[in-house]
Amino acid sequence: MLPSSAARLLSGRRLRLFDDADFWRLWHVGLIVFIVRWLETVAIGVFAYQRTGSAFIVAMLTMLRLLPMGLFGAFLGAAAEQIERRTALFLVVLLMGATSAACAWLAYAGALEVWHLAVASFLNGVGWATDNPVRRVMLGEVVGADRMSTAMSIDVGANNASRMVGPTLGGLLLASGGIESVFALSVVLYLTALWSAYAVRYRNRSPAAASGAVFARIAEGLRLVRRDRRLIGTLLVTIIYNVFGWPFTSMVPVIGQDQLHLGPEGIGILASMDGIGAFGGAILMALFVRPRFYAASYVGGVAVYFAMLTAFALIPDPVIAGGALLFTGLGGAGFSIMQATLVYLAAPPEMRSRMLGVLSVCIGIGPIGFIHLGWLADLIGAQWATAASGIEGLVVLALTRRWWRGI
């Protein structure tokens, strides 16, 4: 039985999420994109490390999926206010599916090279950069602001579930059928997402944009951030997480192989532990977290994430290391759910796409962290570089308290 408080939380208007077909179609698109991201990330990391022996190259391949957020996030956020989002979502999924299809064809032909994976990672990163200003804004408009936190918990729960399934499946497929089987499955999954995107009934109005309006809206959005302490604090914590925390995921295949002596299957299972913890954390957030605890869940989740990724890097036992990854997932759930929720709720309705575009830019600063971690990993080893990054994140988070306490 659920506690009475949890039962009340799931009652009333929030239950209507379960009757909203468009919500579930959008949720399904996100789930597929998330699964493919993790399916391919682990397989690409293992494949590239076996080909090159360079932890730096592995980190760069993961970084390329993040780079488009920094390069195009603000522009995409402003442009998303002037387009019909359902059509944009369909075209984005089509681009990502075509990219995986091209990689599958090259792999089956025996011609797949690491540079092909770099191009594919960047193109898929472009699709990822649209998720906040397009699909997640659509989620908010479909369910309403009062149900946004619950919707985000369910949506992030899908992301976290994909982190349980994707890495394990990617490792097993890579070991049994080669990387071509990984990309072939990606194509099949993207076809189901295309159907869901096509079936979405929701349409937003798309007013005609005046010349130069996109850049004017970007500037207006940045001015809003400067005036709002909640947005400043939220975006600052996002930057800290993505520079010092998130890049460590690229080192899991390297540490799993070199430090923990695991094969592709074991690395896939190890990487999935983070997703298991995050899935459980998302459920807890949906059931028990009230608005007054949003900020504490956000910042506290980041602190736990940094502490646990440091522990993961230093633990020589695969089982205990997997336990540490479980707790990184729990901490990451608080961060990832509250990140978009806090920005969405703080922004005026007419500027939400813009603000989520600015959020994408802050996420896109992460390539700095990947370069930093990859360089350190080649210099002192993946294990010590990952531990150093976690400690740096805790220190920077403590030093910036005066700004993020305004959340």
Extended strand count = 0
The shape is globular
Mean pLDDT, rounded to whole units?
82
When the domains are counted, the total is 1
What is the terminal-to-terminal distance?
A: 34 Å
Share of β-strand residues: under 5%
Which parts are unreliable, with pLDDT below 50 for 5 consecutive residues or more? 1-15, 208-212
Q: For the record, what is the CATH homologous superfamily label?
A: MFS general substrate transporter like domains
CATH topology: Growth Hormone, Chain: A
User: What is the succession of H and E elements?
Assistant: HHHHHHHHHHHHHHHHHH
Helical fraction: over 70%
What is the SS-derived class? mainly alpha
Mind describing the biggest β-sheet? none
| Architecture per CATH nomenclature, i.e. the level-2 architecture | Up-down Bundle
Highlighted features:
407 residues; mainly alpha; Growth Hormone, Chain: A; 81% helix
Describe this structure in words.
Helix 4 runs antiparallel to helix 8 (179-199). The longest helix has 32 residues, at 21-52. The chain has helices spanning 4-9, 21-52, 55-79, 85-108, 114-129, 131-143, 148-177, 179-199, 213-227, 229-244, 252-258, 264-288, 294-314, 318-346, 352-363, 366-380, 382-399, 401-404. It starts with a helix and ends with a helix. The protein is globular, with a radius of gyration of 20 Å. With 407 residues, the protein is an all-alpha fold. The protein has one domain: MFS general substrate transporter like domains (Growth Hormone, Chain: A, Up-down Bundle), CATH 1.20.1250. The chain contains 18 helices and no strands.
